[in-house]
Every structure is written in C-alpha cells, then in structure tokens.
Amino acid sequence: MTREWFLDSAFTLAVLAGGLILVQLVWTLVRDSRARRTHVSTRVGAVPMMDDLGDDKATRKLVTDSRLQRIMLRGNITVTESLFRTLLFGGLSSLVLVLLAWGVIAAVLLASTAGVALWVYWFRRYSARRLEINETLPGIADAMVRAMNAGRTLDTAVVRALDEAPPIYAPLAFRVRSAVESGRDYVDLFEDFADLYQTPALLQISIALATGQRQGASVRPVLEQLADGLRGQQQLRRDFMAMTGETRVSAVLFAVVPIVLGAYLMLANEEYLQVLLYTPQGNKMLIAAIVFEVVGVVWLYRMVQGVGRV
Asked: By residue range, what is the domain housing residue 261?
C-alpha cells in the first residue's frame, strides 16, 4: 500500500463522512418538522378518529409512526440515533476500504454478507416476538374476561389485562392507557399492533373489542372461545414442529454449508481467491455460484415455508 493509496482512502472517507453528515442533517430537519406538525395537530384535535362508518380517509392511530422505530420494535432492537449513525458510518467506511483494497466484487460480497447476516438476526428476533405474542394472547383474553366478571367495564378490563401482560406489550399498553384516560378510541392501536407483528389472533381480539365498544354487546363469550381456540392452535403447532424438526434442520444445513465451505476455501487458498476476484473466468464462476446459492436458498425456503409459523 503506497502513500497515494492512503491519501485516496483518506479523501474518500472524508467525502463519505461529509455526505453522511449532510444526509443526517436533512433527515433530522424533516423528522423534527413532521413530529412538530403531528404534535400540534394532536393538541388542537385536528387528528380525526376512525368513525363507525369506517371512513378510510380518517387518520389511523399507530403504536409508533416512525418507519425505523417500527423495524427496531419488531426485532426488539434498542439503538440510539447516535449509535445508529456511528454504526452506519463504520459500515460504510469498511465498505469503502474493502473497495479500494480488493475491488468491487469483494465490496459487493462484504455488503451482501453483512446484509444477509443482519436480516437473519432481525428475522429470528422478530419471529421470537411473534411466537411470544401468540403464546401469551390466551392469557390476556382470560385476564379481560376475569376483569369483566369482577364487575369492571370493558375499557378498564383491557387496561388491566395489558398492564399484567409481558413487557412485549408495553408500547401497546401505554398507548391504550392514554387513550382510555382521555376518552378516545383504542381499537386502532390493537389493529396496528397486530399489523406490526402480523398476528391474526390479535386482530380478532381487536374486532371483538370494537364490537363490544361500539355496539354495546358482551364480548365475554367471544373472548373465551378465542382463548380456547388459540390454545388449541398452539398445541397443534408444537406437535407439528416436533414432527418436522428433521426437515427444518436439513434445510438449514443445505443452505449454510455451501456458503461456509466456499468462504473457507477462498480464505485458506490465496491463489484461489485471486483467481476468483481478478480474472474474468473466476468472476463468472463466482457469479454463477452466488446465483445458484440464492436460487437454492429461495427454493428451500419455499419448501419449508409455513412450517411452524404462527
């Protein structure tokens, strides 16, 4: 590595840092402006509520309205803005260094590997949270029924049930409690939380609550039957997961082993790595291997899709 290479690297990193700071400033201004307008509209009552006629043009109340916060909330990832900017800058800097040192193909491989690893990490945490929600929903429905049997109103029963729920329901419990205390509708919050984690069972609970809240009908029988049905679904899922465990493990091995073996061969044999990265024939072989691996992973995913899903 010559002196010119270090100068070019430093200049590239400086340009990258300046661009990242500019993008961050613009994003901060837009976010603050949007948050200020939303806060003012909420204070003056300009944010409409869903009416009984189901007006699609009405603004829907959300558990959280930030796209980044929704993604982080799904994966149970807590990252501050400063840490997020630091990680983003570090990742882009590493990508630029790899681009300058080993070329475009190595940078693409690094970005692809990092992206897939982050997605797998996020998806596993997201799936675990969905499973926890489905496992605990019958208990929440039972808590609502017990509270109503004790003589409490439907709104009070919902608040108490969410207060006793696991921490995963904390954002929903906070918004529902605020809505009940201010006399606003809270069914949209259940619908948004169900949409956030793709949970049909929670959507069914929100429909039952909307019926009881707007029509005045008793929701106890519906909640009791829903809790029993959810317990039956969970038991069937456990039995199905036990029967298909070997299939799922085989699919994961078939998807992971070629990637690990290829990375080991490239790192262990320097000449093999040079041929793959810096020769036309090697580039074609590498591209073909990546395409076949992607097709195989997608095929395996389609084969086991739905196994153990909730």
From this structure: 245-304
Q: What is the mean pLDDT of residues 248-274?
A: 78
Using an 8 Å Cβ cutoff, are 128 and 33 in contact? no
| Cβ neighbours of residue 273 closer than 8 Å, sequence gap 6 or more | 266, 267
What's the pLDDT score for residue 56? 41
Which residues are within 8 A (CB) of 74 and not within 5 positions of it... i.e. 6 or more apart?
Answer: 122, 126, 129, 196, 197
CA pair distance 132, 189, nearest whole angstrom: 19
**Quick check: is 113 in a domain?**
no
pTM of the model: 0.64
Instruction: Name the DSSP letter for residue 61.
Output: P
253 shares a domain with 184: no
Q: Which two tokens stand for residue 103?
A: 């070329």
Asked if residue 176 lies in contact with residue 186, where contact means CB atoms within 8 angstroms, the answer is: yes
Domain count, the chain: 2
Cα dihedral 208/210/215/219 (nearest 10): 30
Q: Are 138 and 152 a contacting pair, CB within 8 Å? A: no
Is 227 part of a structural domain of the chain?
Answer: yes
Q: Which of 87, 86, 93 is nearest to 9 (CA)?
A: 93
Q: Which residues contact 188 (CB under 8 A, 6 or more apart)?
A: 49, 50, 60, 61, 62
Which of 185, 219, 239 corresponds to the end of one domain? 239
